[in-house]
Amino acid sequence: MRRAAITGWGDYTPPAVLTNEDLASVIDTTDEWIRSRSGIKERRISHVSNAEMATAAARQALAAADLAAEEMDLIIVATCSPDRAVPSVAAYVQRQLGGLGATMDLNAACSGFVYAMSVANGMIAAGTVERALIIGAERLSSFLDLQDRSTAVLFGDGAGAVVVEATEGPHGLLSSNLHSDGSLTEILTIRGAGTEGVFEAEVPLTVDMEGREVFRNAVTRMSEGAVVAIDNAGLQVEDIDVLISHQANIRIIDATARRLNVDPDTVYTNIHAYGNTSAASIPIALSEALDRGVVSPGDVLAMVAFGGGLTWGALVLRWGDRVERLRTVDHDLPGTEKTGLEVLASRVQGLGI
Ligand code: COA
């Protein structure tokens, strides 16, 4: 059976760090509250655009696969924070890197990367695509409302990317399972950033979230989705070597792992360092896990995600033989000496710093 196998990976996490202490200096919160409720210690704030982050991660992924952008039949950027409505972030990535393959953005909120992998796999299975670049890239700090402490402390910026290639071998994407419950649109929504915000001045930019409802649904739905995906792959929970969950809250990740009854040692997390980077969180975690030697040849990986919609999804894949990059490239973006708070302050009026 023809399917997608990951042959390259990369990430870009902006250099400007925003710590919990930094946040506590401008809003009514504490490091202790944020760490104990979410597991987050710090997050990154981007001084460059979403497309620049996406391109930087993509460059690394292409080098790791030793392929050129011109060889990509498809670029999908999973994002809910595009720089512009038109054209897509993916088109800007192609503008930077080259090629004439199809480009599109996919918005399934924080489930976007899992959705995009499944879409690319379907196109590869159908024979219309040989190679694709799948990127998760988010600049959610643009939406942060520092007046709302319940959401402002959770999110961060970053990008992760993979190159997938068609394979007939035993490795690659074994199964995927995607769902959405449209009756839950209002428990997690960003208002004022779409066309309603253009025409209705009274729609301010806000992240509206019913935290406990999102939490409850996330644990139930991600574990249900993972069980189905594992079963459809013809595997058992015990076969999972590495579980990479969307990094939204360490308590959600732990509760999902407990519900699934997976060995806690198989769960890879990095939420403490980046917060919730939405569709970027899984590919950043995957890239980091590979570079840290967490993934071995032939390992079975499960990826689970949930996000606004409410969307959720799970992937199960078997890794191939290679866990090292074929080539590496340094990021060529301009750096910044600013802290995360200073980058935010340069965009946000009235921060008082
Ligand atoms: N600092 C200090 N106190 C805060 C705070 C902050 N940043 N944010 C909220 N609080 C307060 C609340 O006002 C509330 O106070 P009250 O009891 O006096 O009303 C109290 O902390 C408890 O809030 P609660 O919402 O019950 O906390 P919680 O244990 O549910 O944790 C979340 C809140 C948001 C961390 C948690 O619900 C969560 O992670 N939900 C899922 C969110 C998510 O994953 N979103 C992304 C989806 S992709």
CATH topology: Peroxisomal Thiolase, Chain A, domain 1
CATH architecture descriptor text: 3-Layer(aba) Sandwich
Order of helices and strands: EEHHEHEHEHEHEEEHEHEHEHHEEH
Distance between the termini: 58 Å
Based on CA inertia axes, which overall geometry fits? globular
Q: Provide the structure class.
A: alpha/beta
CATH class: Alpha Beta
The largest pleated sheet is described as: 5 strands, mixed
The count of DSSP E runs of length 2 or more, i.e. the number of strands, is 14
Radius of gyration: 19 Å
Question: How would you describe this protein?
Answer:
With 353 residues, the chain is α/β, with parallel strands linked by helices. It has a single domain (3-330), classed as Thiolase/Chalcone synthase (Peroxisomal Thiolase, Chain A, domain 1), CATH 3.40.47. Helices cover 33% and strands 24% of the residues. It has helices at residues 20-24, 31-38, 50-65, 89-97, 112-126, 149-152, 195-199, 211-232, 250-260, 271-274, 281-291, 340-347, and strands at 3-12, 17-19, 42-44, 74-78, 102-106, 131-139, 157-167, 172-180, 188-191, 206-209, 242-245, 267-268, 300-307, 311-318. The strands form four sheets. The chain has a five-stranded mixed β-sheet with strand order 1-7-6-4-5, with helices on both faces. A five-stranded mixed β-sheet has the order 8-14-13-11-12, with helices on both faces. It has a two-stranded antiparallel sheet with strand order 2-3. Helix 9 (250-260) links the parallel strand 11 (242-245) and strand 12. Helix 3 crosses helix 4 and helix 8 (211-232) packs parallel to helix 9 (250-260). The chain is globular. The mean pLDDT is 95. Bound molecules: coenzyme A. Coenzyme A is lined by residues 29, 33-34, 37-38, 110, 149-150, 153, 188, 209, 211-212, 214-215, 218, 248-249, 252, 276, 307.
